[in-house]
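Entry 12.
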Amino acid sequence: MVMVMIMVEISVVVALLMIVNGEIKEHRIQESMSQCLKGKRIAMRTNTGNNIEYQCLKSMAETEIYMGQKSIKKLILE
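Predicted 3D structure (tokens):
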């Protein structure tokens, strides 16, 4: 039997959002706002879809650490 530990916490994160037709489809934690803006520029250059928008956001989020990787479970938008 293998035991897997998942740690959940609320913290402030910088996230790169992919918004399709006005709905958040994907969100990724970034190290800093400058890294997020760099990722946004790259994504915008490689994107060919018309209804896809990218946005950097500093917000509270419910995050989890699973197998050493921190990811966003839920953004807390207020």
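Annotation: The longest strand covers residues 52-66. Residues 7-76 form one domain.
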